[in-house]
Design a protein that fits this description.
The protein is built from six helices and seven strands. By secondary structure, it is an alpha/beta fold. Strands 3-2-1-4-5-7-6 form a seven-stranded mixed sheet, with helices on both faces. Helix 5 links the parallel strand 4 and strand 5. The longest helix has 12 residues. The termini are far apart. The protein binds S-adenosylmethionine. S-adenosylmethionine binds next to helix 1. This is Putative methyltransferase. One of its GO terms (molecular function) is S-adenosylmethionine-dependent methyltransferase activity. It comes from Microlunatus phosphovorus (strain ATCC 700054 / DSM 10555 / JCM 9379 / NBRC 101784 / NCIMB 13414 / VKM Ac-1990 / NM-1). Its EC number is 2.1.1.-.
């Protein structure tokens, strides 16, 4: 499919689409993938550590991470107030989850304050991927992990180079995480180097 075909999918998701999106994509298609991400991404993160989900949408991934590890701080951000409303409703009984309205390009967090940054089906929506990846690299602590999951058909061209240019090291070590979904989804994994080069 030509790249321009996907242009309409860029940007904030709001309005009537939010509920059916949540029920079909989140509730059915991605359910197992969220569980697998929650399990593998959190391995090795110390108690009290912070995980950030960029473009959390209806919040099913932060919910899965929280259920897996109630000792982590799990934060979801999204620029869509309709998504935030839904994510907050979903996670209001989970004390270690926080959902905030923000964009990938402007993260309301200190430098080196996050242990892992994850995004699911969101990278192709970001308004400015270079700025967004710089922001994600900024908030990651040294040694912290970046995971990007997106549809193989929508994965932005050049995103691996952009991850590298943000100062992160591509590891691509966790592909088995996707299981049977690996045909439709791509997982990019990277790590922030321990010391600046
Ligand atoms: C297809 S949904 C994915 C939602 C969820 N992560 C999931 O797995 O279902 C894409 C999300 O990215 C959000 N988004 C759009 N532009 C964004 C940006 N600049 N920064 C962060 N998120 C953005 C949209 O509002 C939407 O909630």
């Amino acid at each position: 499919m030509p790249a321009h075909h996907h242009r309409h999918q860029h940007g904030v998701m709001s309005g009537w689409i939010v509920r059916p999106y949540d029920l079909v994509v989140g509730g059915v298609l991605m359910r197992g993938t969220y569980r697998r991400i929650a399990e593998h991404l959190t391995t090795g993160i110390v108690s009290g550590g912070r995980v950030l989900d960029v473009g959390t949408g209806p919040g099913r991934l932060v919910e899965a991470i929280s259920r897996r590890r109630d000792d982590l701080q799990v934060i979801g951000i999204d620029p869509s107030s309709d998504m935030i409303t839904r994510a907050r409703r979903r996670t209001r009984t989970l004390p270690n989850v926080q959902v905030r309205m923000a964009s990938a390009e402007d993260l309301p967090f200190e430098e080196e304050s996050v242990d892992a940054v994850v995004s699911s089906l969101s990278s192709h929506h970001w308004a400015d991927r270079v700025v967004a990846l710089d922001e994600q690299a900024r908030v990651l602590r040294p040694g912290g992990r970046l995971w990007i999951v997106d549809l193989a058909s929508h994965l932005p061209d050049g995103i691996r180079d952009e991850v590298h240019d943000a100062g992160l090291r591509i590891t691509d070590a966790d592909k088995e995480v996707l299981g049977a979904a690996h045909r439709r989804l791509v997982l990019i994994t990277a790590r922030k180097p321990l010391a600046a080069a």
